[in-house]
Amino acid sequence: MAGFENNFQEIQDTINTMRGKSNERSGGAKQTLMFEDASSKVKDLVKVALQDEMKGDVSNEKKKVFNKQDLRDERTKYQRLVRTAVYSENFKVVGFDDLDAFINAMVEELVGYSILSDAFDDPDVDDIFCISWDCIYVERNGRNEKYPKTFRSPKHYHDFIERVLALTGSAVNNGDSKIVDAEFYEDRIAVTSDSVTPRGLSMTIRKHREEHIKLAQIVNSGTMNQKMADLIGTMIKGESNLIYAGITGSGKTTSLRALIDHYVTEANKRMLVAEDTQELFPENEHTLQLVTSPTNDPKSNVSLRDLVMTALRLKPKYIIIGEVRGPEAEAAVEAMETGHSTIFTMHGGTPWNIIDRLVNKYLLVMPSLSIEVIERIIGASVDYVIVQDDIPGIGRRVSSISELSYDFTNRQVRVVPIMSFDFETEDFVFINKLSPEKGTKMMRRGIPVDVIRELVREDEDEYIPSLKAFQEKEAKNKKSPQKLAAPVTEEKVLAHYSVDDDDEEF
User: Fold this and answer.
1) Are residues 161 and 297 in the same domain?
2) For the packed helices 371-381 and 351-365, what is the interaxial angle rounded to 10 degrees?
3) Angstrom distance (rounded) from CA 128 to CA 111
């Protein structure tokens, strides 16, 4: 009988070994552990396993996390390590009927997004707002929703934030790092310490979509129509200087990414992208991406302005700046002045708001210049301002496209509306064609004459000043559609510039 029992035990041990389990404790009886205890045990075992793997292998040296593929690779590695650790112990975890669910949760705790993983896996969620450990909201399809999960405790919340920031080489505290901006697997993270947020640590996460939204999707969503996309595309291929503006959450970065992916790639020209944190990830192959390297040492600090000034020496056809919000505004306008097609995003709701903000940012770098001089520089450098909005009940829409120039006679920036969104009809209205000056500039950058003829008005000063004026003019002549000026001739367009082979302005 004893021999039978021994044989049975051997068989049972073999089965347990194959499953990766050990019944050395308590005669094979399972322990029931709280999540914190089980988590601590697994973390210790994984730590030992990682140390064993890294012995004598310098290739496993920790590297900076860059993209979602890095995350997938880390998850795969830790899935193996955690599974081995869990099955080497014989325990159950309170709240987890399925051991695999606990394993997945542990992987997210070690390298992923913890309890926020569902929000990250949801393609309709763009932003995550952790107001406190037990108060979390998400923005799904433009609407704010309470997130159904919370962190288990303030300590769990703090540990998660510390781990995320550690992976980015950052830390939050009540000293020099009260507010921290970082990039985690391509997602933008902003953390504030409890010294500036009375309810404790806060964390805001702007998700990065790994798969770019295509221009066709932008058009199909109603953000813009195809005519507008083609117009902006002609501006881009014609190497115009553009500011793509909008309020936070209006989708301006998403739209700009789709536009440059489509039209810069189509133009097949060299592009340079400068950003504080990577958001654009352009698909155009001939692209040099530059990212700031902020440090406390002024000598080694690389700012966005530094990147833009460096870009001027690297011979790009396009300089794309992720977001202008500081002294880099002056460098961006200087890039426009020197003939580099420069495109950047900016927060603002109207063209005049953008001009005002640019003037103020410019003054940070050039305080000795007068406002009039700065306005002249901006008016002569910026070609178009595109404003995108997120309208309640309607959605994301390009609300205006405006042409900028400088009126030297009246000494002021002139803003000419090209397109405006009619809030009453919820439709896009094209008010004016482009000026001959802008048309000539685009022709000199390779846009065919027949395309320019369709886009340009006949006379520089023959334009309608506003959507209201356009509608009033339409109302007076309801029977016939609005008639814009007759197409210009090539000679008339070219007459606005004396084209010189030695001209290096553009």
Assistant:
1) no
2) 120
3) 18
Structure tokens at 125: 């969620």
pLDDT tens per residue, range 122-160: 888 989 999 999 999 999 877 889 999 999 999 999 999
Final residue belonging to a domain, choices 398, 430, 462:
430
What residues make up the domain containing 316? 215-430
**pTM to 2 decimals?**
0.73
My answer on whether 25 and 153 are in the same domain is no
Report pLDDT digits (tens) over 75-121: 888 889 888 888 888 788 888 888 888 888 898 999 889 999 999 88
Are 48 and 167 in a shared domain?
A: no
Whether 319 and 341 map to the same domain: the answer is yes
Q: Are residues 329 and 264 in the same domain?
A: yes
Residues in the chain: 506
Same domain, 319 and 418: yes
CATH classification of the domain holding 361: 3.40.50.300
Residues 6+ apart with CB under 8 A from 172: 161, 162, 165, 178, 179, 180, 191, 192, 193, 201
Residue 37: other Cβ atoms inside 10 A: 14
Three-state DSSP class for residue 361: helix
List pLDDT tens digits, range 391-421. 888 889 999 999 999 999 999 999 999 999 9
Q: Distance between CA atoms of 107 and 99, rounded to whole angstroms?
A: 13
Q: Which residue has the tokens 């913890």?
A: 114
Q: Which residue in this structure is represented by tokens 């530059």?
A: 290
477 occurs within a structural domain: no
Which residue carries 């590695």 as its tokens?
A: 77
Place of tokens 């040099």: 288
